[in-house]
TrEMBL record:
Family designation: Belongs to the phospholipase D family.
TM region(s), chain numbering: 21-42
Domain PLD phosphodiesterase, chain residue ranges per copy: 178-205, 386-412
This protein's name: 5'-3' exonuclease PLD3
Length: 467
């Protein structure tokens, strides 16, 4: 075509050039068909790829998720405060009464009756009622329970009752899989409601142990993501090894870097679920320790922590202890730790707590404070084993609420199965109080209560814990 003078249009119409014209048109037609064919093959692929990428980074969940903080306040404890929330017993009853198709529970152990204590404690009736409700549901709807393989002489009567009624139960042998235990505690109901928190499937968790958790209603997006963690436990109940990597159906798009965007209590929220240990985290899942570190680092004013145990006795675990000191020093963050004391408290913990509490210097702005929390006991209550303790496992900063299931010691993040809910509502435009505000109020109520005692360098805390 280079030798054709396009300006001489008449020449193109001459008879002697017709054959050349036909050849040119044929070639152009072939080229156009080829281009069309390539577009037909490539463009859908590109569109599909773009849609997939956008779904990963801009996934917005619809619905009107409603989150309620829930607590168990031990019998006999009274706070001089208006701060309070529905009881865990109440919300468990609601979840079971409204369940239509399925109840999936991940749990450490089951003692909803007090046969194991032989105390004839009347407050065990609440746990017995929950067990009876579950028995009645089993066989009518799908009830699945993933539980840590019972150790030694742990009672199994509750689980045997549920199996007989039609529930499916799988033991997860975490001891063989990771040398740890399945310590997590959550429910998924009808694939749209969830409970997650510190309470075990134990009657004492309803009446004799101080617990905190969250129930989220009508939140299919969040329930679907927690369901993936449950399904991983369910799979491990029939496996002798942990997949590496996990199959794609266990993967998630939601984590600390790309949280799900959804409304909670009418407020725009960024939410994700973390899990431990790392070997149980499928692609996309934030390990629990990394979630905690990122939340501490993200704080701009304060970090409040309420946990039963604080034992930085493993090198990997020292990360949190170091991070708390770093943000206090480099960012002037106000750090408060509220740690539990009871008969089973390890004496070695006090050395670490005293070390943290010593990072206190008003001149330089260093501000780390530590208090111990003691649940009082009557003579009869003292006879109840493994009771009368603040079992909370949460953290709240000026930006984020974290509600977990793990004690804060190294082995819980290395080899013990746990999970946590992380909620950020810093973009809130609603007049409603945020989850962070509510959790902060719980912490401050406990911190300022008569049940809390500041740690001092020479305090004989071992005796204080055993009052």
């Amino acid at each position: 075509m280079a030798d054709v003078d396009l300006r001489n249009r008449e020449n193109l119409l001459k008879p002697q050039t017709c054959s050349r014209c036909i050849l040119i048109i044929t070639c152009l037609t072939a080229v156009l068909l080829m281009i069309f064919s390539i577009q037909t093959l490539i463009i859908p692929s590109l569109i599909s790829s773009d849609v997939k990428i956008n779904a990963t980074f801009a996934h917005t969940c619809t619905g009107k998720c409603r989150l309620v903080l829930v607590e168990s306040i031990p019998v006999g404890m009274q706070f001089n405060s208006s701060v309070g929330h529905p009881s865990i017993y109440q919300v468990w009853q609601v979840l079971l009464s409204e369940a239509q198709s399925s109840v999936d529970i991940a749990s450490f152990y089951w003692t909803l009756t007090n046969e194991d204590t032989h105390t004839h404690e009347p407050t065990a009736s609440w746990g017995e009622k929950i067990l009876q409700d579950l028995v009645e549901l089993s066989g009518k709807i799908s009830v699945r329970i993933a539980v840590n393989t019972p150790q030694n002489k742990q009672q199994q009567r509750d689980l045997q009752m549920l199996i007989s009624a039609g529930a499916d139960v799988r033991d997860v042998n975490m001891q063989d899989l990771t040398s740890g235990v399945l310590h997590t505690k959550f429910w998924v109901v009808d694939k749209k409601h969830i409970y997650i928190g510190s309470a075990n499937m134990d009657w004492r968790s309803l009446t004799q142990v101080k617990e905190l958790g969250a129930v989220v209603y009508d939140c299919e997006c969040l329930a679907d993501d927690l369901q993936k963690i449950f399904e991983a436990y369910w799979f491990l109940g029939n496996s002798k090894t942990i997949p590496a990597p996990w199959p794609s159906q266990y993967a998630t798009d939601f984590n600390k870097d790309t949280p799900m965007q959804l409304p909670i209590n009418g407020t725009d929220s960024r939410v994700y679920l973390s899990s431990a240990p790392p070997s149980l985290c499928a692609e996309g899942r934030t390990p629990d320790l990394q979630a905690i570190l990122s939340i501490i680092n993200d704080a701009q004013q304060f970090v409040y922590i309420a946990v039963m145990n604080y034992l930085p006795t493993i090198e990997y675990w020292a990360d949190i202890d170091t991070e708390l000191r770093r943000v206090a020093f480099e960012k002037n963050i106000h750090v408060c730790l509220l740690i539990s004391c009871w008969d089973s408290t390890s004496a070695i913990m006090f050395s670490f707590l005293r070390s943290l509490a010593s990072v206190q210097d008003s001149k330089s702005g260093l501000d780390i404070q530590v208090k111990i929390f003691i649940v009082p006991s009557s003579p009869s209550q003292k006879q109840i084993p493994f009771a009368r303790v603040n079992h909370n496992k949460y953290m709240v900063t000026d930006r984020v609420a974290y509600i977990g299931t793990s004690n804060w010691s190294g082995d819980y993040f290395l080899n013990t199965a746990g999970s946590a809910l992380v909620v950020n509502q810093t973009s809130a435009s609603s007049s409603e109080s945020t989850v962070k505000d509510q959790l902060q109020a719980v912490f401050e109520r406990d911190w300022n209560s008569s049940y809390s005692t500041p740690i001092k360098h020479n305090s004989n805390l071992e005796d204080i814990c055993r009052v």
